[in-house]
Amino acid sequence: MMIDAIQRLGIDYHFKEEIEAVLQRQYMKAGTHGESIQDLYEVALRFRLLRQEGYHVPADVFNNFKNKEGKFKQNLSKDIKGLLGLYAASQLSIEGEDILEEAQRFSSTLLNAGLEHLDHHEATVVGHTLEHPHHKSLPRFMAKSFLKDFQGPNGWLTVLQELAKADFNMVQSIHQQELLQISKWWQDLGLAEELKFARDQPLKWHMWPMAVLPDPSLSEQRVELTKPISMIYIIDDIFDVHGTLDELTLFTEAVNRWDIAAFETLPNYMKICFKTLDDITNEISNKVYKEHGWDPVDSLRKTWMGLCNAFLVEAKWFASGHVPKAHEYLKNGVISSGVHVVLVHLFFLLGHGITRGNVDLVDDFPSTISSTAAILRLWDDLGSAKDENQDGHDGSYIGCYIKEHQGSSMENARQNVTYMISDLWKRLNKECLSQHPFSTSFTEGSLNIARMVPLMYSYDDNQSLPHLEEHMKSLLFEAFPL
Questions:
Q1: How would DSSP label each residue in 45-107?
Q2: Are 162 and 155 in contact, with CB atoms under 8 Å apart?
């Protein structure tokens, strides 16, 4: 329970070795003696904590809570705490784990049904858990809510709460310094003046690295990662709202050759964009080479080429009025999501395990990256409103699906996308439990992009992002009184 609280408060980075030692003992204990504990909350919590750390705990530990007919026991309906734990644990399912699918349906049904019988505090905690299950949320973004929701007489909890408040304020000051650096960089760059049609949102863009890399010590990496992320948005706007198809074709050909001379015949805004892209790519490559002894320039250029080629495919579809098959749209959309660009940069900025084999793997769009990219693309397409101030030519998986499946309703199409996102999460969970050469920081970064997606793409009727804005305000400008 203490480990769970530490993680939810976003202060687990202070206790990494201690947490690892405790979980290792718990895993060995469960493997040696089997699962004889009859407390649902305790079993579910152990299962979730171990799986989160990459331990492949079998899901059959929950069979103890089923009756002779193989159904979850109905008397569990009174165990609200246990049901909350079961629901949270079910989010770590992988493909083929029917028992966890059943656990999610069982626990969510009973928790929703029991809401009206709970007091205000309990109802708030239950509602929060159902809407934001821990595994699919960002602890540092949710820490303030957890501090408000969590009540108890434990002396250690009071100590942790005080530590969490002080830590939150300390990390906030780090993020404020980062924001100053990003703001100065963006202003000095002058792109907002040169490219009036493009988005001008450095604060929003920096929220991605804040989510992806929560460790306070990775400040430099967060600042550097914001730069390619900003260029994904700018290039997206060039393709989506401004460039003609002829210009976009020439732009993509020039990026594929990575030749500044090839841009001489293009409009001035494209020259400025490519010059900035080239400068950022060279600066990050030089930094990685100095710190880690590997020049990533070929990998970084290759991922930008892939992004522009995918953007061009979508531009040609729109210009010709062609509606692709849903699977064809998604295959291209995974690349045009920009996730590969972000995670390739992240891999090199972290500098963990840079070998020829690992570089080839990360260049080749492994499942750790492609699953996250598909989640982003599908979530984006689920959005009911366009991005702020944008009137672009985006396609939509849902539109392609409805055209392909004549007679299918919007509701059916959206439900299908929701199922697909659920399956992609299972694939991501499996990747985290499988042997792979990537560091924990990298795989956690990929998961954190998937966790951040709902915040970035849940637009309201006013085409704004109220939940994201709320988190920005809280994380950057509202300190805890000490």
A1: HHHHHHHHTT----GGGGGGGB-TTSSB-GGGGG-HHHHHHHHHHHTT--TT-HHHHHHHHHH
A2: no
Q: What is the DSSP letter of 241?
A: I
Confirm if 281 and 303 have CB atoms less than 8 A apart: no
At residue 392, the pLDDT reads 43
Question: What are the pLDDT digits (tens) for 247-268?
Answer: 999 999 999 999 888 888 888 8
Q: What share of the chain is helix, strand, coil (3-state, %, to 5)?
A: 75, 0, 25
Give me 310's structure tokens: 């995918």
Neighbours of 268 (CB within 10 A): 9
Domains present along the chain, CATH in parentheses: 2-161 (1.50.10.130), 166-477 (1.10.600.10)
- Please, how many CA atoms are within 13 Å of residue 251, restricted to the half-sphere of its CB? 31
The whole model's pTM is what? 0.92
Asked if residue 393 lies in contact with residue 318, where contact means CB atoms within 8 angstroms, the answer is yes
- Half-sphere exposure for 18 (CA within 13 Å, toward CB): 9
330 neighbors 310 (Cβ within 8 angstroms): no
Cα 477 to chain centroid, rounded: 23
